[in-house]
Design a protein that fits this description.
heterotetramer, A mainly alpha, B mainly alpha, C mainly alpha, D mainly alpha, A: mainly alpha, two-stranded antiparallel ribbon, 21 helices, 2 strands, 76% helix, globular, D: mainly alpha, Helix Hairpins, 3 helices, 77% helix, 0% strand
Chain lengths: 508, 685, 507, 101
C-alpha cells in the first residue's frame, strides 16, 4: 500500500479524536447549556467514536505497530511514555466499538433526561482515558489514563441523581475506586523505589538494580495487580462491580463492563509483559508473579459464576457474569509463564473483543427493558419474546454466546482460550486447574444464561403488558451487536492472526 | 435366480409366493373382494398345493433341489473353524422331507381356508379381511420355513409364523382374554427363540456357515470338527455341538409346546378354531419338530442332546395326556393331546427314529387338523358352546361330523388300522429298541407307553361326551346345521386320517417281509435325495455316535411285543372311557381322582409359576430398578445441581451491600494474596 | 459443494420459515425440507467414496477451506462423506421431513418459530455427520443443543422447563469434558498441525501421543479415551448417564422426540465410532471387557426400566437406552459385523424409534393421553395407525425381515465370535436376553392400549388418524421393511468404511 | 545530614496503614475520603524520598501528578457525597444498602 508519512504523534489519533470529540461536546454544552437535542449530542459522540474506530482499523490494517514493517513499526512517542503497537490498536478498536454502541443506545435511553451534554462528554472522556490506557507505556501515563477513565465513570454511574440506586452505585464505585487507586499509586511508588524509573522498558532494564529491595518490588507489583484487578472487576477488587453495574444506567453498565474491563486488561498485558519480564522479575522477587493471576483467575471466575447462578435481578446477574468473564480472561496473564503464553493472551484478547459485542448487547437489552419499564427481575422478563421477538432473539444470541454455545462468537473465543489453556498446561500443570474451573463454571453459566432465555422465550407473561415501543437507537445498537456476535465466528481467521501477533509483540 | 434351477423345481419359489401375493391382495383390496378375501387365499393355497405335489413328484422322480435364491448379506466371519467369510442367504432346499412337509402344509392350509368359509364367513364374523390376510401371511411364512435351506432363514420364518400366530390368536382383539393369550403365546415362544437365536449365532460364529445341506453345511463342518477333535469356544467339539444343539432346541421346545414351554398352547385356543387347526395343531407347532428333523444330522452327533430330546418328549407325552383327561372344553382336550402327540414325535426323533418321528408328524397333521375342524363343526352346531358337558347325542344329528371325528379319534388313540397306530407304534418300538440299552431312554419309553392309555381314555371320553348319550342342552337338541364348506374338508381329512398310516406299515413289512415301508424308502433316498440328509446316513451317524439298538429276542418279536402293548393300552383306555362316559347321562367321576383332580385341573400349576415369574418376580424387579433409577442415579444428577445452586446462594452472601465490609474484604483478600506470594517468594524469610 | 448446499438450503429455509406467517409455516417448511431430502438421496445415488474417512479412504463430496490458524494448528472448513456418515445424513433429512409432517396436527402455536428451529437443527445435524475437522464438527455438535432446548422448552409438556435445562446442561458439560480431552490429545500428538480428524487418526496410528502433563503417551491416550467415552456416553446415552433422556422424551413434543431418538442419540454413537473406536484401537482392546459390561447393563437395565413404565413415551425412551446398548456391544466387538451392525443399528433404530414416537404421537393427538392405563381397544377406532404401531413394535422386537432384526443379528453375530473381546460369547448371550424383555414390555403395552374392549379415560372422540400422519408412518415402515429385506442397500457401504478400522492400522 | 531511605519507607508505610485503618473503620464518607488522601500522600512520601535516593526527578514529578489527580478525585467524590446526602439524608457510607447479594 502507498506509504504516507505522518508525524509520529498522529499515531495517537484514535485517542486524540475521542478527546477532540469530548471538547466539541463541552463547547456545545457551554454554548447551549440546557440543550436536550439528543440527536446532535449522541450523533457527535457516535461520529467521534466511529472516526476513532476507522483510524484505528486503518492503522492496524496499514501495519502501524506491526513488527517487521520498517516505516510503521512499533511507534514510541515522548521517549516511550506512549507506545502504539498492534496491542494498543486492538484495544483502541474495542473501546471505540463499545463507545459507539453505547452512544447509539443512549440516544433513546436518555430521552427526557436533563444532563444530556454532560453525559456524552463524560462518556467520551472516559473513552479517551481507556484509549490512552491502551497506549500508555509508563506508570505515570498509565496512572493518568486510569484516573481519566475512573473519574468520569464515577460521575456517569451516579448521573441519575434522584435515583437512589444510581447514587449508591456511584458511591460504592467511587469509594472502592479511590481505595484501589491509592493502593495502585503506592504500588507505583514502591516499584519506583526499587527500580528508580517509571517508564516500563526502563523498569525492566533496572530490575536487577532492585537488589535487596526485592520484597518491596514484590509488594509493589502486587499492589499494581490490585489496581488492575479493580479496573477489570477481578477478585478481590470486584466488590464495586455488582452494585455499580446494577445501579448505573444500563448503557453505562455496558460501557464499564465491556470497555473499561478491556482497558484494564490491556493495561495489565502491557505493564506485566513489558515492565516485569518473568525471568528477570522472578530472579529479583523470588516468585513467579503469574501465580497471582492463576489464583485470581480461578477464584474470580468461580465467584462470579456462582454468585450469578441464583440472581433474581437480570442486570445483577449480568454484572456477576461479567466478573466471571474477567476470570476467564485473567488466564491470559496466568499462562504467560509458558511458551504458548502469547497464544493464550491472544485468545484472551479475542474474548475481550467478542465480549465487547455480546456483553454490551446484553446490557443494552436490559437498557431496552428499563426503557420499556417492564421491571428488572427474570419474572418481569417472562414472555417478552411474544411481543418483541427481534430484540429477544438478539438477547438469546447474546446469552448463548456468553455461555459459549456455537455458532456464536463467544463460543469461538472461549474455546480458543480453553484449548490454549490446555496447551499451556502442558508446561505449567497448575493451569489444568484453571481449565477445569473453566469447564465447571461455563457449565454453571449455561444454567443461568439459559434461565434468561427461558424467561424470554418459554415462560408466559405474569401480567398483561401493553404493546412495547421500538426505539430506533437501542434496537439498532442491539441488533448490530447481535449480528456481529452471530457472524464473527466465520471471520475468526484474521482476528486470531492480529490478536496473536499483537500478543506476541509484547510477550516475545 | 431360481430360474437357474432346472425343470419343475424352477417353480419352487411359487409355493411360498402364492400365499404372499394373496396376503397383499387381501390386505389391500380384501374389503371389496367377494368372501372378504377367502378366494385369493383358497386359490393361492391350492396353487401351492399343486406346485408342492409337482415337487413331490419330481422328488419321487429321483430328483432333489437345492439352490440359493437371494443373498441377504455377506461378510467377514471370525469363525472358530477358520472360515474367512460367511454369506447369509435365502435358499430353497427340496428333498424328500421338505417335499412331504410342503404337501402337508399346503394341503391343510387349503382345507382350512375352505373350512373358514363355513366357520367364519357363514357365521358373519367381522374383520375377515384381516383374518384372511394373516392366514395368507402365515401360509407364506410356514412354507418358506419348510423349504428353507439354512438355519438363519429357518429362524426368520420361524419368527414370522410366531407373529402370525400372535395376530391370529388375538383375532378377537376386543375381548380381554384373546389378546392376553396371544401375548402369552408370543412371549413363551420368544423365550425359547432367545435360546434358538443364540444357537443360530453360535453355530454361524463357530462354523462360518448356517447351511443345512451339502458340503458347506454346518452339519458337515461339525462332523469334521469332531473328527479333528477341534476345540470350539473352549469346549471339545462334541460338547460344543451338544450346547449349540440344545440352544436351538430351546426354540423347538417353545414352538412345539414341549415341557416346560407348553403352557401357551392351551391358551392359544382363544383363537378361531380354524386357526387352532391350522397353526396350533397341524403346521406351526410342527415347525419345532420339523426343525429337529431338518437338522437331524447335527443332533445325531450328540447322544446327550438326543437323549434329552427323547426324555423331554416322553415326559411331555405323558404329562400333557394326564392333563387332557380332566378338561371339559373340547378344544382344551385337543390342545393337550396336541402337546402330548408332539411329545411322541420328539421321543421318536430323540431315539434316532427319524422315520417314525416324521411319520407321526405327518399322520398327526392330518388327524389333529381333522379333530380340530371337527371340533369347529361341533362348535358351529352348538352355537359356539365348547363345554362338552352341554353337548351329547350329536351323532345322529350330524353324522358326517361324527364319523369323520371318530376316524380322527381312532387315529389319535392309535387303534389299528388307523394312521395314528402305525406311527405311534413305530415311535415306541424305536424307543424300546434303544431303551433296552439306555436306561434314560427306557424311562422315556415307559412314560410314552403309559401315555398311550391316557390318550385312548381322553380321546374317547371326548367322543362319548360330545356325540353319544342324551343331549344335555337345548342347543344340543336342535343344533345349527353345517354346510358343504365344513363337510368337504372333514371328509378329505377323515379319509387321510384313516388311510395315511398305510404308507409305512413297518410291522406288516417285517412279518410279511414285503417292502411296503414306502415312507422309509422315501426318506431314505430311494427316490430323490440330497447327500447327507438321508435316513440311513442319520442312522449310521446315530449308531456310530450315540446309541446301538438291542432287542428282546429277535427284532420282530420286540416289534410285536411293543405293538401289542401299545394297542392293548389304547384299547384299555378307550374301554375305560366307554364304561364311564358312554351312558345316556354320564357323571363327571372327578371324585375318583381325589386330590389328583385339582392338580390336573390346574395343569400342575405350570401357568401359576410362569405367571409368577412374569408378574410376581420380573415386574417387581423392574419397579425396583425404576425406583433406584429415579432416586439414586437421577438423584445424583439433580443433587449436583442442587449443591451448586446452594453454593451460589452462599457465595453471593459475601456481597453484604455495606461498603466498609467491601473495603475490609478487599484488604483481607489482598493480604491473603500477599501472604501466599510472599510465602512462595520467601519475602518473610 | 453438495454438502454445503444441503446445509445452506436448510439454514436459509430456517430463516425464511422463521419470518413466515404461522399459517403457512408448516407446509412451507415441509416443502423446503423436501429439497435436502431429495438432495441427500441424490448424494446416496451419486456416492463415489470408498474406505473410511479417517483411514485415508476416498471421500465423497469432499470440500476443504482454511478457516483460522491458531498457533501451530490450523482449523479448516472440512466436510466429506464416507460409508458411515452418508446413511446417517440421509436418515437425518428424511426424519426431519417426516417430523415436520407429524407436527402439523399437534403444533398449534408459534408455528413459524417451531418449523424454523426444526430446519435449523436439520442443518446442524447434517453438519455433525459430514464435518471432518474437529473444531468445525464441534461447532455443529454443540449448535444442535440450542434448537432442541427451545423445542422442548417452548412446545413441551408440563415439566418441559426442567427437562429442557437438564438436557441442555447435562449434555453440555459432557461436551466440555470431551472437547478438553480431545484437545489435550492433539497437543499430545507431536507432529499434528491441524484439527482435521483424518490427520489426528493417522497420527494416532503412527505411534500415538507423546507424554503430556507428565503422563506417559499411553497413559495420556487412555485418559483421553476415557474422557471422550464419558463425553459421548451422556449423548448416547449409556447407563448410568441416561437419566436426562426419559425426561427430555416425555416432555418433548412428538417431532422433537422423533429427532431426539432418531438422530440426536446417533450423534453419540457416531462420535464413539469416529473417535474412540477409530483412533484408539489399543485402548478399545484394553477396556473391551468393561465397555462390554456397560453395554450389557445398558441393554438389560434399560429394558427393565422400560418394563416398569406406564407412559408410552417413557417406554420407548428407555427402550432406546436398551437399543443403544446393542450399538456399544457391536462397536466393542470390533469385528466387521459387530461395528457394521452397530452402524446399521444406528440407522435402523433411527427409523424404528422415529416410527414408534410418531405412532405414539398420533395416538396422543387423538386421545390426549399417553398413559397405558388410560386407554384400551384403540385398534377399534384407529385401525391403520394401530396396525402400523404394532408393526413398528415388532420391528423394535427384532422381527425378521425388518431392519431391527438385521441390525441386532449383525451385532450378535459380530460380537459372539469377537477375538478382541474376551468372554464375547457370554456377553453376547446376556445382551441377547434383551430381545425377550423388549417383547415383554411392548406386548404388555400393546395388549393394554390397542387391544381389549374400547375404553378411554380422557373424554375425546377418537377417530381415524389423519392421512398425512398415516402416510409418514407408512413411509417409515416401508423403509424399515426395505432395510430388513435388503440390508445390503447400505450395509455394503458401511462395511466398506468399517473394514479399515477393524482390520487394524494398515492404511 | 541525610536520612536513610528506609526510614522514609517506614514512615510512608505507617501513614499508609493509618489511612487504611481509617478506611476500614470510618463510616462517615468524608472521613473515608480523607483516609484515602492519607494513603495517597503516603505514596507521595515514598516517591519523593526515592526520587532523592535515585537522584532523578521522575518521582517528584509523579508526586505532583498524584496530588493533582487526588484533588480531582476529591472533587468528584464530594459531588457524589452531596447527592448521597440528598438521597439518603446521611453521609454514612454504610446506610445505602438497597443493593446486596
Amino acid at each position: 500500500m502507498a506509504v504516507i508519512d505522518l508525524p509520529q504523534w498522529l499515531a495517537l489519533a484514535p485517542a486524540l479524536i475521542l478527546a477532540a470529540t469530548a471538547l466539541v461536546l463541552f463547547l456545545f454544552d457551554s454554548i447551549n447549556p440546557h440543550s436536550t437535542n439528543r440527536t446532535v449530542l449522541s450523533g457527535t459522540t457516535v461520529i467521534g467514536a466511529l472516526a476513532s474506530l476507522a483510524v484505528a482499523v486503518w492503522y492496524a490494517a496499514a501495519g502501524v505497530g506491526a513488527t517487521g514493517i520498517e516505516n510503521y513499526g512499533v511507534i514510541d512517542i515522548m521517549d516511550g511514555q506512549f507506545v502504539v503497537d498492534q496491542l494498543a490498536l486492538f484495544f483502541m478498536i474495542v473501546v471505540a466499538i463499545v463507545t459507539a454502541l453505547v452512544a447509539v443506545a443512549s440516544h433513546d435511553y436518555l430521552q427526557d433526561h436533563t444532563y444530556q451534554a454532560e453525559y456524552y462528554s463524560l462518556l467520551v472522556l472516559a473513552a479517551t482515558g481507556m484509549s490512552m490506557m491502551a497506549v500508555s507505556n509508563s506508570l505515570v501515563t498509565v496512572f493518568i489514563a486510569l484516573e481519566l477513565t475512573s473519574l468520569p465513570s464515577y460521575a456517569l454511574v451516579a448521573i441519575l441523581k434522584d435515583n437512589r440506586g444510581s447514587v449508591e452505585a456511584g458511591l460504592k464505585y467511587f469509594l472502592i475506586g479511590a481505595l484501589s487507586s491509592a493502593i495502585f499509586v503506592y504500588g507505583v511508588s514502591l516499584v519506583y523505589g526499587a527500580t528508580g524509573s517509571l517508564q516500563l522498558e526502563a523498569i525492566a532494564a533496572n530490575l536487577d538494580a532492585a537488589g535487596e529491595m526485592g520484597g518491596l518490588l514484590g509488594l509493589g507489583i502486587l499492589m499494581l495487580i490490585g489496581g488492575v484487578a479493580f479496573k477489570t472487576a477481578s477478585v478481590p477488587f470486584h466488590f464495586w462491580a455488582p452494585e455499580a453495574y446494577e445501579g448505573a444506567p444500563a448503557p453505562i453498565s455496558a460501557f464499564l463492563s465491556s470497555a473499561s474491563k478491556a482497558a484494564g486488561f490491556v493495561l495489565a498485558f502491557r505493564v506485566f509483559t513489558t515492565a516485569f519480564p518473568l525471568e528477570a522479575t522472578t530472579a529479583v522477587i523470588g516468585v513467579d508473579w503469574t501465580w497471582a493471576f492463576v489464583i485470581l483467575a480461578i477464584v474470580t471466575m468461580t465467584l462470579g459464576n456462582f454468585a450469578a447462578a441464583t440472581q433474581e435481578n437480570v442486570k445483577r446477574m449480568l454484572a456477576y457474569s461479567s466478573i466471571g468473564h474477567a476470570g476467564y480472561v485473567l488466564i491470559g496473564l496466568a499462562a504467560l509463564s509458558t511458551s504458548s503464553g502469547d497464544l493464550v493472551m491472544g485468545a484472551a484478547m479475542i474474548h475481550l473483543l467478542v465480549y465487547g459485542f455480546m456483553n454490551t448487547g446484553a446490557f443494552l437489552f436490559v437498557g431496552l427493558a428499563e426503557y420499556w419499564g417492564v421491571g428488572r427481575t427474570f419474572e418481569d422478563y417472562n414472555g417478552l419474546a411474544t411481543q418483541a421477538p427481534v430484540a429477544c432473539a438478539a438477547m438469546a444470541v447474546f446469552m448463548f454466546s456468553l455461555a459459549g454455545i456455537p455458532p456464536f462468537g463467544g463460543f469461538g473465543s472461549k474455546y480458543l482460550l480453553f484449548s490454549h489453556t490446555i496447551e499451556a498446561a502442558t508446561e505449567n500443570t497448575a493451569l489444568l486447574a484453571a481449565a477445569a474451573a473453566l469447564v465447571i463454571n461455563s457449565t454453571l453459566s449455561l444454567y443461568y444464561y439459559s434461565r434468561l432465555v427461558k424467561a424470554l422465550w418459554i415462560e408466559e407473561p405474569l401480567l398483561e403488558r401493553d404493546t412495547l415501543a421500538k426505539p430506533t437507537g437501542l434496537y439498532a445498537a442491539i441488533v448490530a451487536a447481535a449480528v456481529v456476535t452471530a457472524v464473527i465466528l466465520a471471520a475468526f481467521g484474521p482476528i486470531a492472526d492480529v490478536a496473536t501477533e499483537a500478543a506476541a509483540t509484547v510477550v516475545g | 435366480m431360481a430360474a437357474t434351477a432346472t425343470g419343475p423345481f424352477g417353480f419352487a419359489p411359487a409355493i411360498a409366493v402364492f400365499p404372499l401375493v394373496a396376503f397383499v391382495i387381501t390386505l389391500l383390496f380384501g374389503k371389496h373382494l367377494p368372501k372378504k378375501g377367502a378366494l385369493p387365499g383358497i386359490i393361492a393355497t391350492g396353487g401351492s398345493l399343486v406346485v408342492s405335489l409337482v415337487m413331490a413328484a419330481a422328488v419321487a422322480g429321483g430328483d432333489a433341489h437345492h439352490t440359493e435364491l437371494y443373498e441377504w448379506t455377506a461378510g467377514a466371519a471370525a469363525s472358530e473353524t477358520g472360515a474367512e467369510t460367511i454369506a447369509f442367504t435365502f435358499g430353497i432346499l427340496i428333498d424328500p422331507l421338505s417335499a412331504l412337509m410342503l404337501v402337508i402344509v399346503s394341503l391343510v392350509a387349503l382345507l382350512v381356508h375352505v373350512f373358514s368359509l363355513g366357520y367364519m364367513n357363514a357365521e358373519g364374523e367381522t374383520g375377515l379381511r384381516r383374518y384372511y390376510a394373516e392366514l395368507g401371511l402365515f401360509t407364506f411364512s410356514m412354507l418358506a420355513f419348510v423349504f428353507a435351506d439354512n438355519l438363519l432363514m429357518a429362524f426368520m420364518f420361524f419368527e414370522l409364523v410366531g407373529l402370525c400366530s400372535y395376530l391370529l390368536i388375538g383375532f378377537w382383539f376386543r375381548t380381554e382374554s384373546a389378546p392376553s393369550a396371544a401375548k402369552k403365546a408370543f412371549l413363551v415362544t420368544r423365550f425359547g427363540d432367545y435360546f434358538f437365536l443364540i444357537g443360530v449365532v453360535a453355530i454361524a460364529a463357530t462354523f462360518g456357515t448356517v447351511g443345512f445341506a451339502g458340503e458347506g453345511s454346518f452339519v458337515t463342518a461339525a462332523e469334521t470338527a469332531i473328527e479333528d477333535g477341534a476345540t470350539l469356544f473352549g469346549f471339545d467339539a462334541q460338547t460344543w455341538v451338544t450346547i449349540t444343539g440344545l440352544l436351538v432346541l430351546g426354540g423347538v421346545l417353545g414352538k412345539s409346546a414341549q415341557f416346560p414351554f407348553h403352557t401357551w398352547l392351551p391358551d392359544a385356543m382363544e383363537g378361531p378354531t380354524t386357526v387352532s387347526a391350522l397353526i396350533h395343531a397341524a403346521t406351526m407347532v410342527a415347525a419345532g419338530v420339523y426343525l429337529v428333523a431338518r437338522m437331524f444330522g447335527y443332533y445325531a452327533l450328540s447322544p446327550t442332546a438326543l437323549s434329552i430330546i427323547a426324555f423331554v418328549g416322553g415326559f411331555t407325552a405323558l404329562f400333557a395326556a394326564t392333563m387332557a383327561v380332566v378338561k371339559d372344553d373340547v378344544k382344551q382336550v385337543l390342545a393337550y393331546s396336541t402337546i402330548s402327540q408332539y411329545g411322541y414325535m420328539m421321543l421318536g426323533l430323540g431315539v434316532g427314529g427319524y422315520v417314525a418321528g416324521v411319520f407321526h408328524l405327518m399322520n398327526h397333521a392330518f388327524f389333529k387338523a381333522l379333530l380340530f375342524l371337527g371340533a369347529g363343526a361341533v362348535i358351529i352346531l352348538m352355537h359356539h358352546e365348547q363345554d362338552m358337558w352341554k353337548m351329547g347325542g350329536l351323532k345322529d344329528k350330524a353324522p358326517v361330523v361324527y364319523y369323520t371325528f371318530l376316524a380322527g379319534a381312532l387315529a389319535l388313540a392309535g387303534i389299528v388300522p388307523f394312521s395314528g397306530f402305525w406311527s405311534k407304534d413305530e415311535v415306541l418300538f424305536d424307543a424300546l429298541a434303544v431303551g433296552l440299552s439306555e436306561p434314560v431312554i427306557l424311562a422315556a419309553y415307559a412314560m410314552g407307553l403309559v401315555a398311550v392309555f391316557f390318550t385312548g381314555f381322553y380321546t374317547f371320553r371326548m367322543v362319548f361326551l360330545t356325540f353319544h348319550g342324551e343331549p344335555r342342552s337345548d342347543t344340543a337338541e336342535d343344533p345349527h346345521p353345517v354346510g358343504w364348506a365344513v363337510k368337504v374338508p372333514l371328509l378329505a381329512l377323515g379319509t387321510l386320517a384313516a388311510v395315511a398310516g398305510l404308507v409305512n406299515m413297518a410291522p406288516i413289512a417285517k412279518l410279511a417281509g414285503v417292502d411296503i415301508t414306502f415312507l422309509e424308502f422315501w426318506l431314505d433316498g430311494e427316490y430323490g435325495y440330497v447327500e447327507g440328509l438321508t435316513y440311513h446316513h442319520y442312522h449310521e451317524t446315530v449308531a456310530e455316535m450315540a446309541f446301538e439298538e438291542s432287542y428282546i429276542g429277535s427284532e420282530t418279536t420286540t416289534m410285536l411285543l411293543s405293538a401289542g402293548l401299545s394297542l392293548g393300552l389304547a384299547l384299555a383306555g378307550a374301554f375305560t372311557a366307554h364304561t364311564l362316559y358312554n351312558v345316556p347321562d354320564p357323571d363327571r367321576h372327578t371324585t375318583k381322582l381325589g386330590g389328583a383332580y385339582s392338580v390336573l385341573k390346574s395343569n400342575y400349576y405350570q401357568d401359576e409359576y410362569q405367571v409368577w415369574l412374569a408378574e410376581g418376580f420380573t415386574l417387581p424387579l423392574a419397579r425396583a430398578a425404576d425406583r433406584f433409577d429415579q432416586t439414586v442415579i437421577d438423584g445424583v444428577v439433580n443433587g449436583t445441581s442442587q449443591i451448586s445452586l446452594f453454593g451460589s446462594d452462599w457465595v453471593k452472601r459475601i456481597q453484604t451491600g455495606i461498603v466498609t465490609n467491601y473495603a475490609a474484604l478487599l484488604v483481607g483478600g489482598f493480604i491473603a494474596l500477599l501472604l501466599v506470594l510472599g510465602y512462595l517468594g520467601g519475602w518473610f524469610a | 459443494m453438495m454438502i454445503e448446499a444441503l446445509i445452506a438450503v436448510a439454514l436459509i429455509g430456517a430463516l425464511v420459515t422463521f419470518v413466515a406467517p404461522n399459517r403457512i409455516a408448516g407446509k412451507l417448511a415441509f416443502a423446503i425440507s423436501l429439497v435436502p431430502a431429495a438432495l441427500s438421496l441424490w448424494l446416496f445415488g451419486a456416492f463415489d467414496g470408498s474406505g473410511n474417512a479417517l483411514r485415508g479412504g476416498e471421500l465423497a463430496f469432499e470440500s476443504q477451506a482454511a478457516w483460522l490458524e491458531i498457533g501451530d494448528y490450523s482449523i479448516s472448513w472440512f466436510v466429506g462423506l464416507d460409508g458411515i456418515s452418508l446413511p446417517l445424513v440421509v436418515l437425518t433429512t428424511i426424519l426431519c421431513t417426516l417430523a415436520i409432517v407429524s407436527s402439523w396436527t399437534p403444533i398449534d402455536e408459534r408455528q413459524s418459530q417451531f418449523y424454523g428451529l426444526i430446519l435449523f437443527i436439520e442443518a446442524m445435524l447434517i453438519g455433525v455427520f459430514s464435518a471432518l475437522d474437529f473444531f468445525l464438527w464441534f461447532v455443529f455438535w454443540e449448535a444442535v443443543l440450542i434448537p432442541m432446548y427451545l423445542l422442548i422448552g417452548i412446545w413441551g409438556g408440563p415439566r418441559r422447563k426442567y427437562a429442557a435445562i437438564k438436557f441442555f446442561v447435562y449434555t453440555n458439560v459432557a461436551s466440555l469434558v470431551m472437547f478438553g480431552s480431545f484437545v489435550a490429545l492433539v497437543f499430545g500428538l507431536g507432529d499434528v498441525t491441524s484439527f482435521a480428524l483424518p490427520e489426528v487418526a493417522t497420527a494416532m496410528l503412527e505411534g500415538g501421543p507423546d507424554g503430556l502433563f507428565g503422563l506417559s503417551g499411553t497413559t495420556l491416550a487412555s485418559v483421553v479415551f476415557i474422557g471422550l467415552f464419558l463425553g459421548f456416553a451422556v449423548k448416547v446415552p449409556i447407563v448410568p448417564f441416561h437419566t436426562w433422556l426419559p425426561d427430555a422424551h416425555v416432555e418433548a413434543p412428538t417431532p422433537a422426540s422423533i429427532l431426539l431418538a432418531g438422530v440426536l442419540l446417533k450423534m453419540g454413537t457416531y462420535a464413539l465410532l469416529r473417535f474412540n473406536f477409530t483412533m484408539f484401537p489399543d485402548q478399545v482392546e484394553a477396556y473391551a471387557v468393561p465397555i462390554a459390561a456397560i453395554a450389557v447393563i445398558s441393554v438389560i437395565y434399560g429394558a427393565m426400566l422400560a418394563l416398569a413404565q406406564t407412559d408410552l413415551k417413557r417406554i420407548v425412551a428407555y427402550s432406546s437406552v436398551s437399543s443403544m446398548g446393542y450399538v456399544i456391544l457391536g462397536l466393542v466387538a470390533y469385528t466387521q459385523f459387530g461395528v457394521g451392525g452397530a452402524t446399521f443399528q444406528m440407522i435402523s433404530h433411527g427409523l424404528i424409534s422415529g416410527l414408534m414416537f410418531m405412532a405414539v404421537g398420533v395416538i396422543y393427538n387423538a386421545t390426549h393421553t399417553r398413559m397405558v392405563t388410560d386407554m384400551s381397544g384403540l385398534a377399534d377406532r384407529m385401525p391403520i395407525a394401530v396396525g402400523v404401531l404394532i408393526a413398528g413394535a415388532f420391528g423394535y422386537m427384532g422381527l425378521p425381515l425388518m431392519s431391527g432384526f438385521a441390525a441386532e443379528y449383525f451385532i450378535f453375530f459380530g460380537s459372539f465370535g469377537s477375538e478382541l473381546l474376551s468372554y464375547s460369547a457370554l456377553f453376547t448371550s446376556l445382551a441377547m436376553f434383551g430381545i425377550v424383555i423388549v417383547a415383554g414390555y411392548l406386548l404388555f403395552a400393546l395388549q393394554r392400549t390397542v387391544f381389549g374392549p374400547y375404553r378411554l379415560e380422557t373424554d375425546y372422540e377418537v377417530g381415524r388418524a389423519p392421512v398425512h400422519d398415516v402416510a409418514s408412518l407408512l413411509v417409515l415402515l416401508g423403509l424399515v421393511v426395505l432395510l430388513g429385506v435388503a440390508p445390503d442397500l447400505i450395509f455394503d457401504m458401511i462395511t466398506d468404511a468399517i473394514d479399515p478400522i477393524v482390520q487394524g492400522g494398515d492404511l | 545530614m541525610t536520612v536513610d531511605v528506609q526510614y522514609y519507607v517506614l514512615l510512608s508505610m505507617a501513614v499508609f496503614c493509618i489511612g487504611l485503618f481509617g478506611v476500614l473503620t470510618r463510616r462517615n464518607a468524608l472521613l473515608f475520603l480523607m483516609s484515602v488522601e492519607l494513603m495517597l500522600n503516603a505514596a507521595n512520601i515514598n516517591l519523593i524520598a526515592f526520587a532523592f535516593y535515585h537522584g532523578n526527578l521522575t518521582g517528584q514529578l509523579f508526586a505532583l501528578f498524584t496530588m493533582a489527580l487526588a484533588a480531582a478525585e476529591v472533587a468528584v467524590g464530594l459531588g457524589i457525597i452531596l447527592v448521597l446526602y440528598r438521597n439518603f439524608r446521611d453521609v454514612d457510607v454504610t446506610v445505602p444498602t438497597t443493593m446486596r447479594w
